[in-house]
Please model this.
Amino acid sequence: MPITIRLTKLDMSPICRLLSMLLACLLLDASISGCAATPYRYERLSSDMHAAGKSDSVVIKHDSPGPFVQRLSDVADIPRNHLPFRSRRTHHEISAETEQKITEYLEKNDLKDVYVCVNQYDPAGEWRRLRSNRTISPAWRYSLGIVEFARYALLPDPVFCSNNYNPYTNRLSINLDEPANILFEAAYAKDVYSQPRPGTYVAITSLPVVSLVPTMRAINEVVSYAQSESDWETEQGAYRRLYPQIGRESTPVAIFLLPVWWENALFGLAASGVGHLAGRYVESQRLRELAEIKGTPAPRSKERDQSPMAEPAESILQISTSTQSGSAIRQTSGP
Model:
C-alpha cells in the first residue's frame, strides 16, 4: 500500500521565536557596525531642491509653546525628573555648544533653508509651511502630510520632549539638548533632500521594516560626520543613544511573527537591549582603534569627566606632586 506523509505546521515556542528575532537584530546591528566608518561626503544641493529659496545662514528660532502646552509639558516632565537614571540633558532648550554643532552641520551640507525651532508649538505656521513646501509633491503633502500635521497638532513635540524632523514641512523641532539625536534628525533631512523624488521616498520608508533604511543611513551619517570633525562626544552619543533605536525600529517586524501582545512588548525591550550592546561593542572597537594610532590619546566622555570618582590616577598624582613642590618652595623662600 502507498505510504503517505503528512506535513504538519511547525509550532515554534515563543522563546524560539524571540531568539530567532534577536539573532536577526544582532545581524542587523553587525551590518550597521561594519558600514559605520565610511568616508564622509559633504552634500551640495542644487537650487531646485529647495522649497522656498536658499537662505544665507541657518536661523534657529527659540520660542515658547504657549501656556496650555507649557502646563502639559510641566506635567509630562514630572516622571522624567524623578527617574533614578534620568538623562542630564536639558529639556526644552539647547546649549550654545549644541546650537553651534547643528548650525555647522546644516551649513556645511547646504541645508540652510531647514526651519529649525526650539520648544515651539505653532500649528498655524506648520500649516503654512506644509502648503509652501514645493520639494514634496502636492499628492504626498495633502495626504500623508496632513496626517503628520494632525499628529503634530494633537501630540505636540514639546510635551513629549522629542526632537523631530518633518519632511513635509521641512521643519526640525528641537526639544531635548542631545547633539547626537539632533544630528540624526538633521541627517534624515539630508537624506530626504538628496533623493530625486523625496515625497515618494518618505512615503515608502514610512512603512514597517523599510523604515530601517533611513535609520541606518542617518546613523551612518552621524558617525561619519563626527569622525570627520574629530567630535568624540557626538560619536560616542551615536553609539550609546542611536544604536538602540535600530532595535526599536525593528519592533514592527515582530507583529508578523509574534501574535501575542506580550511577546511583541518583550521583543521591543530585547531588541533595544541588543542595539545597546551592539553600540557599546562598536564603541570599544573604536576606542581600541584610536589607541593604536600613534600620538592620539584615548578620548574620554564629558559625563565621566564630570564625575569626581572617574578622575584618573595620573591627574591625582600630578596634583599631589605639584602640591609637594609648592610646599617645598614656600619652606625655602620663608624667613
In short: The chain has a mean pLDDT of 75.
